[in-house]
């Protein structure tokens, strides 16, 4: 035990596995960066909410559109102030991402300019707000055995506070460790690689920050949990080299990188680039999750960025893929909506839509044919349209209910706005718990 403590007291030296795209593959990364830049410009023009995950990816890249990044920082700061002033929704994980985005731009989240803030304050302290939000999450875990939101957001909270050098209580860390040990990272019977990966980033940051001898036991617990999480993440690797699915692979690669874990990285990158070439990352949020890992970067580097003008300017001529020529013809999709909790309804319909239609378009057509059975509502999320209700049943965070979409028995790994059903496919929308 004494030897273990002595080893833990040694200075930590980072080891970074060289896992990134080759020089002749960098054009594919540039194309993904331009997808995000164009998305941000469109978002700014329409007055939409900024996406902090995109800013994180742009800041970690080798090539930059400095003007867009600076403008995005300003929009992020203004939106944070607006949310607080007007009492708008601002979940703990969103606050965490805003803090990380500001840090990536060398802006102090605790000193966000906010003239006119209630109480005569001229600055908004987002770090303090995040500490409060995390405390509420942990209190909910203590009383109900699950957080107000989910463990993905709790992990983001701990990561952001740690990256800002703010103290993270041993109790909060212990609750995340217990969730990892007790199945808290599984949803609908499926292990969440995304949650596990962000937890690895958060716990790695906390572990590196521990210097006091009286916290070495916690450091050992964290290391044991990291070993367990990495083992679980690697077990989710497919024969193609994807980890979980194509959209969780980016965060998983970050987790494996910060823990210096060996894996067949070249195979993973090759498969990811193949999927990118076929359009899997045209959604800007999807692009933001994969681009850091393609250049061997990770979120633990955000507070080490040099915020002087970057020498490497993003080549805006490397554009996103041109939309494919719309194929002719129609397809038939079998669509069912099912109350999987109260069993109050189970309604099916066959819908005919043009080839290449999204699932959202299938749902809209079903609602036109039979509104009483197939009406639904959506709200915009960072990933696109998110279904909040079908018929009269709405997802509820307190009751931990949501609408899950499946093809056969498999959950879809894309949102309803991106997923394109094939002819004869059976799609189920099932009201479920997590």
Could you characterize the architecture of this molecule?
It is globular and about 65 Å long. It is built from 15 helices and twelve strands. The strands form four sheets. The protein has a five-stranded mixed sheet with strand order 6-5-12-10-11, covered by helices on one side. α5 runs antiparallel to α6 (126-144) and α8 runs parallel beside α10 (216-235). The chain has 434 residues and is of the alpha+beta class. The protein has helices spanning 2-9, 26-46, 52-60, 66-86, 92-104, 126-144, 151-163, 170-181, 193-209, 216-235, 249-258, 265-277, 284-294, 359-369, 371-374; strands at residues 112-113, 123-124, 186-187, 190-191, 330-339, 346-354, 376-381, 384-390, 393-394, 401-407, 410-411, 426-433. Residues 1-16 have low confidence and may be disordered. It starts with a helix and ends with a strand.
Task: Quickly list its features.
434 residues, 15 helices, five-stranded mixed beta sheet, 14% strand, three-stranded antiparallel beta sheet
The major β-sheet equals: 5 strands, mixed
The oligomeric status of these chains comes to single chain
Would you tell me the overall average pLDDT?
90
Report the portion of residues in β strands: 5-15%
Helix content: 40-55%
Strand line-up across the major sheet:
6-5-12-10-11
The low-confidence runs, each spanning 5 or more residues with pLDDT under 50, are 1-16
The tally of beta strands, per DSSP, is: 12
Structural class from helices and strands? Answer: alpha+beta
| Rg over C-alpha atoms, rounded to the nearest angstrom | 22 Å
Distance between the termini: 40 Å
Tell the overall outline.
Answer: globular
Q: So how many helices? A: 15
Order of helices and strands: HHHHHEEHHHEEHHHHHEEHHEEEEEE
């Amino acid at each position: 035990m004494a030897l273990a403590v002595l080893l833990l007291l040694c200075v930590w030296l980072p080891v970074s596995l060289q896992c990134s795209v080759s020089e002749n593959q960098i054009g594919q990364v540039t194309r993904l960066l331009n997808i995000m830049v164009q998305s941000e410009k469109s978002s700014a023009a329409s007055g939409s909410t900024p996406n902090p995950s995109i800013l994180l990816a742009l800041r970690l890249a080798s090539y930059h559109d400095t003007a867009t990044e600076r403008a995005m920082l300003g929009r992020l700061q203004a939106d944070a102030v607006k949310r607080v002033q007007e009492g708008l929704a601002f979940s703990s994980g969103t606050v965490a991402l805003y803090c990380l985005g500001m840090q990536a731009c060398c802006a102090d989240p605790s000193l966000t300019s906010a003239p006119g803030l209630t109480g005569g304050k001229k600055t908004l302290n987002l770090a303090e707000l995040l500490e409060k939000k995390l405390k509420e999450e942990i209190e909910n875990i203590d009383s109900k055995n699950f957080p107000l939101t989910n463990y993905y957001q709790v992990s983001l909270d701990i990561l952001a506070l740690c990256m800002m050098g703010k103290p993270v209580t041993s109790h909060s860390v212990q609750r995340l460790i217990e969730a990892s040990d007790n199945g808290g990272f599984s949803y609908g019977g499926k292990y969440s690689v995304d949650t596990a990966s962000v937890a690895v980033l958060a716990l790695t940051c906390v572990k590196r920050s521990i210097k006091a001898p009286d916290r070495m036991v916690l450091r050992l617990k964290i290391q044991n949990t990291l070993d367990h999480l990495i083992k679980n993440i690697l077990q989710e690797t497919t024969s193609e080299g994807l980890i979980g699915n194509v959209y969780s692979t980016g965060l998983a690669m970050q987790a494996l990188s910060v823990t210096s874990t060996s894996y067949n990285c070249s195979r993973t990158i090759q498969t990811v680039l193949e999927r990118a070439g076929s359009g899997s990352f045209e959604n800007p949020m999807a692009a933001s999750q994969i681009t850091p890992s393609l250049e061997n970067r990770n979120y633990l580097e955000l507070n080490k960025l040099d915020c002087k003008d970057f020498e490497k300017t993003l080549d805006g001529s490397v554009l996103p893929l041109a939309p494919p020529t719309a194929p002719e013809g129609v397809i038939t999709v079998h669509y069912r909506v099912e109350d999987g909790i109260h069993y109050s309804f189970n309604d099916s319909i066959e819908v005919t839509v043009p080839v290449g239609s999204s699932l959202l378009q299938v749902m809209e057509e079903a609602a036109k044919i039979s509104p009483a059975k197939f009406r639904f509502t959506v709200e915009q999320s960072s990933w696109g349209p998110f279904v909040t209700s079908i018929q009269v049943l709405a997802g509820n965070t307190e009751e931990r209910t949501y609408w899950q979409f499946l093809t056969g028995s498999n959950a879809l790994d894309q949102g309803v706005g991106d997923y394109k059903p094939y002819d004869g496919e059976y799609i189920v929308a099932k009201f479920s718990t997590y």
